[in-house]
Amino acid sequence: MFNMTQIETFHKSSIRAQPPASEIASAARILRDGGIVAFPTETVYGLGADAFNAQAVARVFEVKKRPRFDPLIVHIHDVAQLELVAESVPAGAWKLIRKFWPGPLTIVVPKRPAVADIVTAGLPNVGVRMPRHSVALELLRAAQTPIAAPSANLFGRISPTDAAHVREHLAGSVDMILDGGPCSVGIESTIVSFAGKVPMLLRPGGTPTEEIENLIGELCVPEPTSQMSASPGRSLRHYAPATPVVIATTPSILPGLRKGLLAFTPQPDYITRDFDVVEVLSHNGSLNEAACNLFAALRRLDQSKLDVIIAKKFPEQGLGRAINDRLSRASQSKRIEP
User: Fold this and answer.
1) Does the pTM of the predicted model rise above 0.90?
2) Homologous superfamily assigned to 21-216
3) Where in the chain is the domain with CATH 3.40.50.11030?
4) Domain 239-330 part of CATH 3.40.50.11030
5) Which pLDDT tens digit goes with each residue over 177-202?
6) Which of 9, 61, 228, 232 is deepest in the core (most CB within 10 A)?
7) Is 163 helix (H, G, I), strand (E, B) or coil?
8) Which secondary-structure segment (H or E) carries 202?
9) For the stretch 247-257, what's the b/e string if a residue is b when 16 or more beta carbons lie within 10 angstroms of its beta carbon?
10) Cα-flanking dihedrals φ and ψ of residue 107, to 5°?
11) CA 151 to CA 40: how far, in whole Å?
């Protein structure tokens, strides 16, 4: 009933060499001229525009079909560029910057007026990060401007971790897709807000929450329905395949349906025999590896003509917390109750 190869084979995209400098220069020129470019980061592919060009940023929203109340993250290549976008940076944020930048961490701080209001959905604060990807950093340096960028996919759908995923959603709608190979982290950045009286975790992501709290203390976590417009990726429905997703402790459910299983580690035969397709995210129990492969595996399951995708909950620690967050939001759409 299932394909053993799909259980035992670890899927990975082929690594592409660094794009030529001429391609990066062309992409930077497009951004300076008010165009939009899809580009790789270590987390997911982003769809970028000049953060100071409101018309260019508006086109990002239009291409993604993204609601205007959902703010974007501004990407920079050097800490000195914070002065261009941030009005102030508190001491706690500086601690995180020194430890985790460049990397999958976004800080939310008061913004400067030069940042287009459409970037922040009219809010007085802006999310900023420095990506840890050589192509993204070279593009930012060449563009000579901070780049506002959400993920390079249609709003609410599975985030792209390879240039091929971007082409599936946005080919013909963007000015350029800069191919830097598959993403090494594969899950969006952690977002910590310093806009209030205490640091707040707005989204778990590629930097484990425990490592952040070890540095600056316990983070406040808002209720799921609050702070909805304060950060990207907080919509109740997000990161979702077209196929319904069910999170289950015991995955042997829903008889009579074509089912796919999304599992952290290899599962025993008595579980897998009930599924038509099985995706294993890590064969050695690595949460880093599982996060890296999450969106690509969801995409393959979504393309397998299934009635439902069953996902087993991950350990609520390290990157497992971020994976559970993405699965929870993906499961809000077209839910099938077990």
Assistant:
1) no
2) DHBP synthase (3.90.870.10)
3) 239-330
4) yes
5) 999 999 999 999 999 999 999 999 99
6) 232
7) helix
8) strand 200-203
9) bbeebbbbeee
10) -110, 140
11) 10
